[in-house]
Automatic annotation (TrEMBL):
CC terms in the record's Gene Ontology section: cytoplasm
Superkingdom as given in the UniProt entry: Bacteria
ATP-binding as UniProt keyword: yes
InterPro entries: AAA_16 (IPR041664), P-loop_NTPase (IPR027417)
Protein name as it appears in the record: Orc1-like AAA ATPase domain-containing protein
Pfam families according to UniProt: AAA_16 (PF13191)
Keyword Lipoprotein: no
Organism: Vreelandella sulfidaeris
GO function term, MF aspect, one: adenylate cyclase activity
Length: 219
């Protein structure tokens, strides 16, 4: 099983697509990298204008009219076609899990891309979307996946067990005080808990343990 994790950190359009393609290629997106990916997927025969539009959506060109790009139905269609091929290839050998941290912060084009993928992917594709949503605001696009499971927040014991699993997985030590602070701040949301652990790993790597909780205040 392979997992790609997306956290919306800005209002950039097509953020999910950019993150997923970059994750798949294990590199920052460039024009050449996108061309190579398209060739490998048999999706390299686009007309110049459509090719440029796809590259704009994937963020490798400066865009003058962000709003126009975000509202472009043609751009959404091109991105869906590319991701459809990519996901089917990856899912042929591995189960692919896309994790999205809080749907309410997702950009609207990404919602349209997810809806387009839902309509195109065969029902037996080994692809799963795992996302958190607090339900405070209505989503701009309704997502009706073949199987939808709604989970409540984890309680303190479940959060503690999740932290223990993550600690073993990444071979890190969390003091009792830090564990309690993370459990309190994550509010029972698994994706948020994972973000705290990612932040702690970064802190340890950077050798900034003494200021650990200060670094976590922005989460």
């Amino acid at each position: 099983m392979l997992a790609a994790h997306y956290t919306a950190v800005s209002a950039r359009p097509y953020g999910v697509a950019r993150t997923l393609v970059s994750w798949y290629l294990t590199q920052t997106l460039t024009v050449d990298a996108i061309h190579e990916l398209q060739a490998s997927l048999g999706f390299d025969q686009l007309e110049p204008d459509r090719q440029h539009l796809l590259e704009e959506a994937l963020g490798v060109h400066e865009v003058q009219e962000i709003t126009q790009l975000a509202q472009s139905g043609e751009a959404v269609e091109l991105v869906v076609m590319l991701l459809h091929r990519l996901i089917e290839r990856q899912a042929a050998t591995h189960t692919l899990v896309l994790m999205i941290d809080d749907l309410q912060w997702l950009d609207e084009p990404s919602f349209k891309v997810l809806a387009g993928l839902q309509a195109r992917l065969p029902i037996n594709t080994a692809f799963m979307l795992v996302a958190s949503h607090h339900g405070r605001d209505q989503l701009p696009v309704k997502l009706h996946w073949d199987q939808q499971i709604s989970l409540g927040n984890l309680d303190a014991l479940q959060s503690s067990r999740l932290l223990s699993q993550l600690s073993r997985r990444y071979r890190i030590h969390l003091s009792p005080r830090l564990r309690n602070q993370i459990i309190e701040r994550c509010d029972g949301v698994p994706c948020t808990c994972r973000r705290f652990v990612d932040a702690w790993i970064w802190i340890v790597v950077k050798g900034a343990v003494s200021s650990s909780m200060n670094c976590l205040k922005g989460y």
